[in-house]
Amino acid sequence: MRILARDDAIQMLNKVPEVTLYFWIIKIMATTVGETGADFLNFDLNFGLTGTSVFMAGLLVVFLFMQLRSRKYVPWLYWVNVVLISILGTLITDNLVDNFGVALEMTTAGFGLALLVTFALWYASERTLSIHSIFTTRRELFYWVAILFTFALGTAAGDLVAESMKLGYANSALMFGTMIVAVTIAYYGFKANAVLAFWIAYILTRPLGASCGDWLSQPIANGGLGLGTVTTSLIFLLTILGLVVFLSVTRKDVTPRTA
Questions:
Q1: How many other C-beta atoms lie within 10 A of the C-beta of residue 90?
Q2: Helices 194-217 and 21-39: angle between axes, nearest 10 degrees
Q3: Which domain holds residue 149?
Q4: What pLDDT, on a 0 to 100 scale, did the predictor assign at position 255?
Q5: Degrees to nearest 5, angle at CA 77 with 19 and 48
Q6: Which ranges of the chain would DSSP assign to H, the alpha helix?
Q7: What whole-number distance in Å separates Cα of residue 90 and Cα of residue 151?
């Protein structure tokens, strides 16, 4: 089953997975881990916001270097980088808000602008924003920078809606989930542009996953279910691990390169 990827738009190249239902499930869970994982390192392990940021940035540099050196799509390596970028994107926003006092409205607007600039530079250089054409190092670098900004933007937008606007975690998840459904309907029902639909959905899954993570992990008194960051992170990490192992064995998200 392909979600937001019609048959006539599929052209899998060797560094990026095919956009399937598995892709979106792992992506949403990775965003949840980004929210709960950052909180776990920051508060439960007492790394502090700065220490957590430095530690995660170091890990990302190591694994992203491995990803860039790889000559083909490797499921576990790709998704490790997505999880790490998810956590780092959360931390970037948290640092700006908590350590530097930048308002969520400003961080949301700023990361939105940064993402638009990234897309503009990417398109000016490569004449495409399709994730099915990531077959050079330059395109892959644009791709990962865009991914980082989508996570930072999603974190800021999710916190803005859930906290500043006091919508609550469950209602925020419902709102962003409804928006993703609307994008899917526009794509399948009205033949919306595949690249535009993908990136809008990718951005929206970040606040959806963050809201779900907060809803599951936060205390009942704060509007959550009280599972805690450890339990929530563990559940989602094990689920991601199971799906990545499944994809590594079955190669269901790998399509042979076409001319």
A1: 32
A2: 40
A3: 7-250
A4: 58
A5: 110
A6: 21-39, 48-69, 75-94, 104-126, 137-159, 169-190, 194-217, 228-250
A7: 7
Q: Rg of the chain over CA atoms, in angstroms?
A: 18
- Note whether residue 192 is domain-resident: yes
Query: What are 25's two structure tokens?
Result: 């499930």
How high is the pLDDT of residue 33? Answer: 83
- Measure the CA–CA gap between 80 and 78, rounded to whole angstroms: 6
Give the total number of structural domains in the chain. Answer: 1
What residue ranges of the chain have pLDDT lower than 70?
A: 1-14, 164, 255-259
| Contact (Cβ atoms closer than 8 angstroms) between residue 64 and residue 80 | no
Is 255 inside a domain boundary? no
Residue entry with tokens 């809201």: 211
Question: Is 1 contained in some domain?
Answer: no
In this prediction, residue 15 carries a pLDDT of 82
Distance CA 203, CA 28 (A): 10
Q: Tokens 């926003």 sit at which residue?
A: 93
pLDDT of residue 257: 54
> Do the Cβ atoms of 249 and 18 come closer than 8 Å?
no
Is 173 part of any domain?
yes
pLDDT at 112 (0 to 100): 94
Global confidence as pTM: 0.86
Least Cα distance to 151 among 193, 194, 108, 121 occurs for: 108
Which residue type, as a one-letter code, is found at position 185? I
Give dist(CA 145, CA 79) in Å, integer. 15
What is the Cα–Cα distance from 161 to 152, expressed in whole angstroms?
Answer: 14
